[in-house]
Design goal:
Number of domains: 1
Oligomer: single chain
CATH topology: Maf protein
Shape: globular
Strand content: 15-25%
Number of helices: 7
Distance between the termini: 24 Å
Number of strands: 8
Helix content: 25-40%
CATH class: Alpha Beta
């Protein structure tokens, strides 16, 4: 475990819960970034968009901590839902949520969650991405309408949560279950503890020590998305 403090730059209650259940102590420190503008300006591989946004959030949080005389390690994360060569962000309203769910219904897509660990200054940063292949079940319009009416899709990339108790939209998962929820603890643990990530970190045929619901083999370059779990250092 790292020496405290570890700051979580995310308002997501799901990420807070995952860290807590993993036994990783943290302090919440959320700063705002213009995700729409950052996404529009991004020109890299689509499956690395979440990692790029996580890096911007981590950098902003480091700057914010410095302004109040604090320092530490910042953890940021961002999840993207990829289908048909596009990234589905959080829906702006119920109509857009319904449209996204109809696009995903009965089909397979990729969820790519990027994480970034920064500190004690924004220049010290490492990041990685975990990708998961998700196949949605062929839910009917009545189920879709009832789920959208709950408001749950409005703060979720791709307009759904895998763990919703009533909707249960997913038919099958190949890869990191926790990454779909929003935080791949395997990568977080490796980065936080300074453990090198092997080239086959998420492609080998083994079970996950954090979640029995993470199921190998994990997605690799196959025409759906270019995925990688290499940690990348930037000066």
């Amino acid at each position: 475990m790292p020496r405290p403090p570890l700051f979580l730059a995310s308002a997501s209650p799901r990420r807070r819960q995952i860290l807590t259940e993993a036994g990783i102590p943290f302090t919440l420190h959320v700063t705002s970034v213009d995700e729409d503008t950052l996404t529009h300006e991004y020109t890299g591989p689509l499956d690395r968009l979440g990692e790029y946004l996580a890096r911007q959030k981590a950098r902003a949080a480091c700057d914010s901590l410095a302004h109040v005389g604090l320092s530490g390690t910042v953890l940021a994360s961002d999840t993207t839902v990829l289908i048909d060569g596009q990234s589905l962000a959080k829906p702006r309203d119920h109509r857009e949520a319904s449209a996204m769910l109809r696009t995903l219904r009965g089909r397979e897509h990729v969820v790519a969650t990027g994480i970034a660990l920064a500190g004690p200054t924004p220049e010290h940063m490492i990041s990685a991405t975990a990708a998961t292949r998700v196949r949605m079940r062929d839910f009917n319009d009545a189920e879709l309408t009832a789920y959208v009416a709950t408001g749950d899709p409005l703060d979720k990339a791709g307009a759904y949560s895998i763990q919703h108790p009533n909707f249960s939209p997913v038919a099958a998962i190949t890869g990191c279950h926790l990454g779909v929820i929003g935080l791949p603890v395997c990568l977080v643990s490796a980065l936080v503890n300074g453990t090198p990530l092997p080239p086959d970190a998420l492609t080998c045929d083994r079970t996950c020590p954090w979640s029995a619901r993470c199921t190998p083999p994990f997605p690799g370059p196959d025409g759906i998305t270019e995925t990688s779990t290499d940690a990348t250092h930037h000066p």
